Amino acid sequence: MTNLLTAGLFRLRKDGLFRLMALAVVLATGLITAQSIGAYQGDLARGVPVNDMEEYFFNQAPMMGMLAAVFVSLYWGAEYSDGAIRNKLCVGCRRSHVYLAHFTVCLAANLAFLMLWFLFASPMYFYIGPMAIGWTGFLTYAATCICFTAAFTALFTLICAAVTNKAYSVVAALGVWILLVMASGGLYGRLCEPEMNVAYQMLVGEEFVTVEAGPNPLYIGGTLRTVLEGVVELLPTGQAFLVNDINIWHPVRGILLTLAFTAAMLGIGLGMFGKKDIR
C-alpha cells in the first residue's frame, strides 16, 4: 500500500493532466478574484450595499465537483488504458490496496486544486477586508470544503470502478454531477422558501393589485424539513451550495453526514472493484 501511494504521488507530480488542470484553476480563480474585487469596489463607489468577503471567496464551491469529475475519470481512464492497474494486480498487489491508493492520489490532486483556489482568492482580503464570519467561521467552511471534496472523489472513484472506458467514465461522472446539482439545487431552493409571504403589489393591466401577507404554500416544515435538510447535507453538491451561499445550517452534522457519504461510496466501490474483470 505504501509503495503504491508513493509511486502514485510521485507520478502525480509529473502528470500532464494534473498540471493542466492546476493551471486552469489558477487562471480561473485569478480572473474571478479580479472580477469580485472590481465589483466590490464599484458598488462601494456607487454607495450601494456591498457583500462581505466570504460571499465572494466561496463562490467557486459548486464547481469543485466538476473539477473532481473530470480529473478522477481521466486519471482512472488513463490507468486502465495504459494497463497500469492490470500490471499492479499481476505483480501481487491487493485490489483493495490498488483502489484505496488511487482514491488517495485523486484526493490529493483535488485537495491541491482546492488549496490553489484558496491561495489565489486570498488577495480579496487586502481589497475587500476580513471575513465577517471570522477565522472560526472560515475554518468551518474550509473543513466543509475539504469534506465534500473527499466525498466527490469517493463518488467518482466508484463510478470509474464500474466504467473502465475513459470516454464513458468522463460522461458518466459529469452526468452524475449534473444530476446531483439539479437535485440538490431543487431541494435547497424549496428549503429556502420563507414560511410567510410578505405583502407586495403587482401590476395587473393598468392597476396595481395588493397581495396580502400570508402563509407560503411552498414552505416545507416539520419532520419533512429535517429529513430534506439531512439529504442536502448528505450530498456533496448540497454542501457546496450551502458553502456558496454562506448558509451552513449545522456544521458538525453536515461534516459527519458528508464523511458518512464518503465512507459509503468507498465501501461500495471496494466491493465493485474486488469483483471487476480487469483486462
What is the subunit arrangement here? single chain
Fraction in beta strands: 5-15%
The SSE string, one letter per element, is: HHHHHHHHHEEEEHHH
Radius of gyration over C-alpha positions, nearest whole angstrom? 22 Å
Class by SSE composition: mainly alpha
Number of strands: 4
Tally of contiguous helical segments: 12
Shape: globular
Distance between the termini: 22 Å
Describe the strand arrangement of the main beta sheet, using strand numbers: 1-4
Give the overall average pLDDT.
Answer: 89
The major pleated sheet works out as: 2 strands, antiparallel
Uncertain stretches: none
Helix content: over 70%
Structural features:
279 residues, mainly alpha, two-stranded antiparallel sheet, 4 strands, 5% strand
Question: In summary, what is this structure?
Answer:
This protein is mainly alpha-helical and 279 residues long.
Please specify the SSE layout and strand pairing.
Blueprint: H1 2-14, H2 16-46, H3 53-57, H4 64-81, H5 84-90, H6 95-121, H7 124-128, H8 134-162, H9 166-191, E1 196-197, E2 200-204, E3 207-211, E4 214-215, H10 222-234, H11 236-244, H12 251-275
Antiparallel strand pairs: 1-4, 2-3
